[in-house]
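Lab meeting, action items carried over

1. Structure of the two-component assembly. Owner: GW. Status: complete.
Input record:
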Amino acid sequence: MFKLIKTKKKIIHVSYLAKEGHIASSFSVLNIINVLVKNFIFKKKKYLNNFIMSKGHSAIGYYAILNQYRYISNSLFNKFATYKSPFGGHPKRNLKYYISASTGSLGHGLPIATGMAFANKLLKNKKHFYVLLGDQECNEGTIWESLLLCKHHRLNNLTIIIDRNFSRESDLSLGNLKNKLKPFSKKIYLVNGHNEKKIKEIIKIKNLSNEPKIIIANTIKGHGSKIIEQGNIWHHKFPDSIKECNLIMNSIKY
Amino acid sequence: MRNIFPDFIYNQLATDKKIFILLGDIGVHSFRKVFQNYKNHILNLGILEQSMIGFAAGLAMEGRIPFVHTIAPFMVNRAYEQIKIDLCYQNLNVNIVSVGASIDYAALGSTHHCPEDVAILSKLPNMQIYCPGNSQELANLLKKYKMKGPKYFRLSNYFHNSQIPSNESFTLLRKGKKGLIIVIGPALRFIENFYNFVDANIIYINKIKPLDEIFLKKYFREKIVIVQDFYKGSISSDILAVFKNRKIVCKEIGLPIKFFLNYGSSIEHYNMLGLNNIKIKKEIIDFLR
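Predicted assembly:
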């Protein structure tokens, strides 16, 4: 399993400085984002404008990975969510900084990605699109709407990755998500969302069907720190003091 | 007015292959020529207004110029947040063309009314709002479809019969001393048989946002009348902002903010609300006296 301990510690520190950021949501998808940035959405250091983070909550995780590969500098990342920063708590469209869409209100990214994929499919472009959803985001009606569109318009140039971290399963259960999604695609894959090798393998599988590929990535919200994993109190919380900041940073073990 | 839209698109597609039409399960028949000749430029997307706006945003991001077309409340009310974030926040060139202005669909009831479209859309930054007063104006205004940013074209069953002397969106119809009358789009029908006898500056506008401030300032009068066929108060704050620091007495002619619970025809509603030439003439003359 690939470890992102250093990057996670940086996220803790930056969110402490900014008093902003969804740490736990970022940690559940950090491995997924790492795989995407490393292999699928940048080519020769150039952003392909093919990634929509519908789950805007993991913005700080995306910036951290961009920082890890030096697409954005330390000083820029350290200014996260400050007044003049292009990088806020939720992403704002800015192609110069590798952000294709403004998201954060849930259920907006998939329709946008659907439109982008459709436009390229029509022109027979080879471009492939990736959209990252949260599992509870799938409560939104636009997910149903867009899946109907993806299926009907045969959008096999779109890969939908769902972060299945079960964060609110007890409040509104999605139950067997794979079964619920089956009518929309025969290409549904379950994967351990922290196993980068497996994630990469599945994304790489050529989609010869006429349906979008859907990857349900089972993840742990707050993955890496037992403290953050423990409860939803960390959904939108950041360290209050340098003491707590150090405590949380030291709690990151994987 | 509604037939002009498919004709415009059909003609424009001959030279502009970036255009893409998304229908919300209306107008399929009137766009049949486009379906036949330009099938890669039109979709009846289905009844999913929120995703239709997001989908259009995606098309725009990939270089297309989308038009989305459905009944006003389903677009403006239901997909308001998508319009705000996907279109306005990202400032994408997407054209919304509605049908069913205000209470055009009177007999269908309040689910199909939308007298608030102008009021709520005008509060969204980057949004441009066009309110054509007849078919000819619509044809002219649609030519702005390539301009940057989201645009709303409000199509009405009603139209005026006046000859507007210019193709501009802000036109002075008459000069006078006692007040300033600002009349918007199809609402010109309410005053066209008598405005020549009113001693006031009369400005006709079919573009509500952004307002031409310099033009409006030129014809300032202390007494202002706004004549509209949507909710009263929809644009008065924008107009008052133009005349900031001036003492103003303002009268609004338009629909009251309420549900119109009766069915029938929209003309019956307008009459019951006192929105006809005779009553409006009396109100304006009394106010400017």
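2. GW to write a short summary for the group page. Key points so far: The interface with chain B takes residues 49, 92-93, 100-102, 105, 107-120, 122, 141-142, 145-146, 148-149 of chain A (CB under 8 Å). The first helix of chain A runs from residue 5 to 18.
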